[in-house]
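Minutes, project huddle
Topic: does the predicted pose make sense with carboxymethyl coenzyme *A bound?
PN asked that the exact inputs be recorded in the minutes so nobody has to dig through chat later. Recorded below.
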Amino acid sequence: TGKFTYDPGFLSTAACQSKITYIDGDKGELLYRGYPIEQLATKCDFLETCYLILNGELPNETQRKDFVGRVTQHTMVHEQMQFFLRGFRRDAHPMAILTGLVGAMSAFYHDSTDINNPTHREISAIRLIAKMPTLVAMAYKYTIGQPFVYPRNDLSYSANFMRMMFAVPAEEYKVNEVLVRALDRIFILHADHEQNASTSTVRLCGSSGTNPFAAIAAGVACLWGPAHGGANEACLNMLEDLQAQGGVAKVGEFMEQVKDKNSGVRLMGFGHRVYKNFDPRAKLMQETCKEVLAELGLENDPLFKLAMALEKIALEDDYFVSRKLYPNVDYYSGIVQRALGIPTALFTGIFALARTVGWIAQWNEMLSDPEYKIGRPRQLFSGYAARDVKPIAQR
Ligand code: CMC
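Predicted holo structure (tokens), as shared on screen:
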């Protein structure tokens, strides 16, 4: 391949050094800053995890309080954002709205635009983590035609988000701690995943020195695609379609389709590019799924039963076993989100909200690296050699 290594899809190119997230796909291991995801998901909340991802260490009590205080101070968005939002059609996809809103934040915060100043970078990180829930909830309320709900800073990060999503005027909104904890866990499990497509997008975009909100908007745009953040939406659609066609009774027939290479049908929520043993996030999500369905009295939820039936067959079937295909995080997160009342079209927005901390931490790490350069992939040129422009009459 001449001067350059040709590596489509970057299957074997490391574009950066990073100390943030470690994945061992064969062992099914995921560590944020050295801490196993299982421990973070059961012993910490999302904001502690954000602090860890951003700063490299878990906070002590004083640091935790200070961080929570700084995040809550920034949960409001500028009132003018509402006018911008109202310019969208009501039936716009929430990810279209979110890409626009996050990009628009770059037009509001002119006091922290020096990307070479660590204090400016930090304030942008806090603003993004604080405002994402407000923006996602606003995008949702707008598409269903309900009034926006302003943030309440006496509530936890996840409880405040649930309230902004589901509270309606003149009715008291009661926070359900089991559901809040489930949502918080979804956020923890999606907070970072090293150099995936959207994170690499944020790094590449940010490497030109662009405004941080613009770089994160690029990450949101990348995440939107069905091969990335859109998979949980696809998984839930698959379960709903199968349910409509007869549910558990049709599982065998459906599996035959999945195994038929010519059908083009995949078992969504199964398989992973990196995890070839199991996805540790899927195990945690399955537990959460059971807790949420029990709390809501939905143990007999037909979609959950269907998911369990499909999983059982797949885990015993040679097609899946021989290809090392196991459930990934999205297999269960869609069912949990649906039970929480989150509409399918918003699943990727929830993922974006959670991944924002990972994006901004990776962006910050890149800018702090003395070896950092603008990203500029090379190409293998396969077009014409030099040729002459002919007069238009001869073309
Ligand atoms: N259902 C049926 N067969 C599958 C599936 C599936 N879900 N996934 C992979 N295979 C087969 C595939 O046909 C191939 O078979 P063969 O070797 O006979 O040609 C083999 O398994 C390897 O698949 P691949 O597509 O080469 O593997 P990959 O590493 O390129 O793809 C994947 C990984 C996640 C894109 C793929 O497993 C998939 O499409 N899964 C369904 C979509 C999904 O759930 N995506 C969410 C990923 S997790 C979210 C995140 O971490 O961001």
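Observations noted during the meeting:
- Strands lie at 21-24, 29-32, 35-36.
- The chain has two domains: 16-227+360-368, 231-340.
No decisions taken; revisit at the next huddle.
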